[in-house]
């Protein structure tokens, strides 16, 4: 008789835990623990990460099965899971005593001007999540997690942003749906209700510089993950002549990514556009200031693009902030500026199709999507959503998928998937490619091809028109065996 699902899962956990364990032993890396000597991140090579993820995913499913249907509904969604963490972060408890010493509930209570009883209750709750420990009655000691909170300020900013901006919005999302059904407005959200404001979150936060700064730091901490590295577009986008041309980074913030692009390609010129208050007082690094290699320009992306004829218009983490109503407007404002062969390059999350990733990984991506709904009435988009968004602006935009192959690339893209990011690339095609593309069935874009098939099959289009003058292609990788997928998509004009 084949083993039951729960035994299969337990076996997976054992086998893959042993692989991780052997690697750690060979490399002389301490085994994971909650002790303060444990480093905040378990850095593993890609091959061992596969085992790490297998253990986490199998544990996730096994826990749900072992709890049973009724208990798992509540036990897997404890509504209080953020309460003690929010208290620890907001009251500065992690920093109230050094990780190398211990403290007491009463000393911590005094340091945070709270009652000893409340601090004891909150910390004992947190301890069930391995945040702090009580080595002997009344004595509080750090664990690896509380120490990480104390010693990595940006992690504290991220926890603060999640617990004090996202979590309250999450609790009011359904209220917002009931109050403003089908709204696409950024000021009719769970966030609006949670903070009793009629301003969109970004505008509302601008009134509270400390909170706005906390969000900016939290975002830059998230952005420091490997999946968000600009190297993905530097290495994977087919830059061609654009490497010597002009790139406009639309909503490019203070130019951090454009600076990397400009330093990578010695002849490219970059213009970074953002709202005046964002770029005010920001200076261009000396090495890029000469010859106008990088310039900052105030520009509202809801107004017509003023830089005409650039080779690439780059939208990095822009469109996911906006519902379709507004995202289409941002794209529409670019169209009059697009010269023949210009490309629109988009770096965004591409939501996986259902059941392609493990539930554990898919949950991560879906969390991003729901968060965007809670705070902006915006969304993360899947491949079809992306195609439809561009088609809604101009049917001449073409969307296609180019399945690529090769272990190295697949491993790399898995790493990107784990970090919930993908890159959408917009580029142009030649006539022959267009003819082939038009003959393909759009639904093929949803197929999960084997690596061998992927090597043969170049791309599939979702939109085509006999008189098309604007077109594009795409790159996507898929690893059917592992159920991982990540996409790089292109659109373009010509
Ligand atoms: C999520 S951030 C992305 C920043 C940058 N592209 C990056 O990847 O780091 C969104 C950016 O859009 C900018 N933004 C918001 N509304 C804008 C508008 N109407 N016109 C131009 N930029 C805007 C914000 O100031 C912010 O820098």
From TrEMBL:
The keyword Transferase applies. Residues 187-391 form the O-methyltransferase C-terminal domain. Keywords: Methyltransferase, S-adenosyl-L-methionine, Transferase. GO terms for biological process: methylation. Pfam families: Methyltransf_2 (PF00891). One of its GO terms (molecular function) is O-methyltransferase activity. This is O-methyltransferase C-terminal domain-containing protein. It comes from Cudoniella acicularis.
């Amino acid at each position: 008789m084949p083993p039951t699902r729960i035994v299969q899962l337990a076996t997976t956990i054992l086998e893959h835990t042993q692989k991780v364990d052997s690697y750690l032993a060979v490399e002389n890396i301490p085994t994971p623990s909650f002790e303060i000597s444990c480093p905040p991140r378990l850095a593993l090579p890609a091959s061992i990460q596969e085992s790490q993820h297998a253990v986490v995913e199998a544990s996730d499913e096994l826990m749900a099965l072992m709890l049973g249907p009724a208990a798992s509904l509540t036990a897997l969604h404890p509504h209080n899971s953020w309460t003690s963490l929010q208290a620890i972060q907001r009251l500065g408890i992690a920093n109230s005593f050094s990780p190398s010493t211990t403290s007491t509930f009463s000393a911590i209570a005094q340091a945070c001007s709270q009652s000893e009883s409340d601090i004891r209750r909150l910390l004992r709750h947190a301890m069930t999540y391995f945040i702090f420990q009580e080595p002997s009655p009344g004595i509080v000691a750090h664990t690896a997690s509380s120490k990480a909170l104390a010693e990595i300020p940006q992690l504290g900013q991220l926890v603060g942003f999640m617990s004090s901006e996202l979590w309250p919005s999450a609790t009011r999302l359904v209220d917002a749906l009931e109050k403003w059904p089908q709204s696409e407005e950024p000021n009719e959200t769970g966030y609006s209700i949670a903070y009793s404001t009629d301003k969109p979150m970004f505008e509302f936060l601008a009134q509270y510089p400390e909170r706005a700064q906390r969000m900016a730091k939290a975002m830059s901490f998230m952005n420091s993950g490997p999946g968000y590295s600009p190297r993905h577009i530097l290495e994977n986008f087919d830059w061609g002549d654009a490497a010597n041309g002009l790139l406009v980074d639309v909503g490019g913030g203070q130019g951090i990514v454009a600076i990397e692009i400009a330093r990578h390609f010695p002849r490219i010129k970059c213009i970074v556009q953002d709202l005046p208050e964002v770029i005010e007082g920001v200076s261009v690094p000396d090495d890029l200031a000469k010859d106008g290699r990088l310039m900052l320009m105030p520009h509202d992306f809801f107004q017509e693009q003023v830089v005409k004829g650039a080779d690439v218009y780059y939208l990095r983490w822009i469109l996911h902030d906006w519902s379709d109503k507004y995202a289409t407007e941002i794209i529409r404002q670019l169209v009059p500026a697009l010269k023949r062969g210009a490309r629109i390059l988009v770096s965004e999350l591409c939501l996986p199709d259902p059941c392609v990733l493990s539930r554990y990984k898919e949950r991560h991506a879906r969390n991003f999507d729901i968060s965007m709904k809670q705070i902006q009435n915006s969304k993360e988009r899947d491949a079809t959503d992306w195609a439809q968004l561009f088609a809604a602006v101009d049917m001449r935009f073409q969307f296609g998928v180019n399945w690529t192959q090769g272990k190295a690339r697949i491993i790399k893209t898995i790493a990107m998937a784990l970090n919930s990011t993908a890159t959408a690339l917009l580029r142009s095609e030649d006539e022959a490619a267009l003819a082939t593309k038009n003959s393909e069935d759009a639904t093929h874009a949803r197929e999960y091809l084997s690596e061998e098939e992927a090597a043969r099959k170049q791309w599939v289009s979702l939109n085509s028109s006999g008189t098309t003058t604007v077109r594009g292609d795409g790159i996507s990788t898929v690893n059917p065996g592992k159920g991982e997928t990540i996409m790089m998509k292109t659109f373009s004009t010509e």
